[in-house]
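task queued by scheduler; priority normal; single chain, no ligands, no partner chains; default sampling; output format set to structure tokens
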Amino acid sequence: MYNPKPKFLPFGWKLLISYLILIILPVAILGFTANAILVESMLIQTRNNLQGTLSQMRDNVRYKLDDTERIADMLYYDETLALNLMRYEEGWISYETTSTILLPKFRQAVESTNQKLWLSIYLKDDNLPEIYYDSGNIDLLRVKQQYFDVYHISRIQNEDWYRDFPKEQYGKTQTWTQVDDDAKFGRISLLRRLVNTMNPLDLKEIGFVRGSVYLSELFASLDYQKIGPGSLLEVVDQGGSTMYSSGEMQTEKHSRQPIESRSGHLLITEQLPELGWTINAYVPQDLLEIGVQKVNQMTLFISLLFVVLISVVAGYISRFFSRRFAKVISVLTMFQQGDFHKRIAYKGNDEFAIIADALNRMGEQTERLIEEVYETNLKKKQAELESLQAQINPHFLYNTLSSISRLAKFGRVEQQHQMIMNLAKFYRLTLNDGRTIISIHDELDQVKAYLDIQKVKYGDRLEVDYCIDPQILKFNTIKLIIQPFIENALEHAWVGDRIYIRVVGERKDEHILLQIIDDGVGMTETYAAQLLQSRDDRQKGYGILNVHRRIQLSFGDEYGVSIYSRPGIGTNISITIPIQEKNVI
């Protein structure tokens, strides 16, 4: 009978999986954690770098603002200029003051910077002449690059930006704002008073300075390419209006917020306290993630490299141990199948060497014990068969001699002689040179000899019929397996003064079926079952149990005797034996 091997995961795979779980899992966790920390660090570093770049841009703007304020300071702190602006003399003296002192100082201030600067000086002394060009709608600063003009302060006294100018604090009061045509031409102006600095406690206004510069030049350092492609730099005023922008991104007005992600962009801000404006830098998240992707790829590559290396090492180690376990398992499998000749050839001085030596010793001892048990069982089985055979012959002999005695008692010499001759034939076939295995042909001859003895006793009251397949006569069986059932029928199955017995023999697939059928009194199903279970030799039907046990001892538990009987109808005894060739003993 085929017994499929149970499905299980081999030891080598279990060991490999254990290595992968216990080593790769921590590596994966460490890799993930390290990657997260590195990515966060890189993002922070990138933000810091961007913030630093924006701070540099802010410092460049401050430098240009400071440069313009420096020019205003040159005029503000020039005491000579202040004294000449306070002379209030008419005529030639005013003209000479203007031409020899004021204009050179104004020209020197304008030319001291590299910026495009339009310097407008408004004087409180009406005696000093105005010097300016009436350019109309033309932006003279575009034409002359550096330019100054001189006006009387009365021209701006009605302007809101002049009236709202803060109260003077020595050296501090100044304002950056867009006045007049600044917005039209994209400029912004530094506004500052000129005062008499001889007495800081009594600062009297003697003039007003307006220095105009282009926003494009002031914010020339705000180049979005320094941040990265797809970014945007913009300068917004206090009201949120965009004063200047550089970049590819088209945005709506954004509120000023701390560094945060907005619409897929990172917002970085820097303040321009001199103007009260804010520099906003919108950086695409994709630009930030370029470094993150590189870190992820490097982390993944290193992790995969570790996985491959660990897998190779784990595979080698698991194979190293699984091959040794495979040797042990192969030996145990052979032992399980009953082959104890298998041995393990193992060299070494470790636990596997101890296991191999123990299994080899166990195989040798088991093999020796099996041989001893096998020989003992054979002897026991042969002794039991001979014992059962010895029990049948005396039993039959006792019954036959009783019948011969009765014939002699009644003087039936001829029948007595015939019975004795048949008894001699029966025992000649039974002894069969001491063999317990005989052919079915000889077994049937024994049955016929026995029935011939019984016919002498019963005459016409006993009717026997044989239905035997000639092909089964050549096969072997153990002797005396049919006669006990016929004897049992003659002892217990009579109905009235006659009985009919039929002996059938045929081949069924790979076994032979022998049947003894009678039309006697029959028996109950319970009683029939007891005949094959009883171990009390004194009970009736001892011969049936005897035959059944001898067949199973010789051929196995799947063979033997079965009984079908119904009271008042008769009994059918079925004997199943395997097909045994004649040369099998």
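post-processing summary
- The CA atoms of residues 327 and 344 lie 7 Å apart.
- Confidence is low (pLDDT under 50) at residues 250-261.
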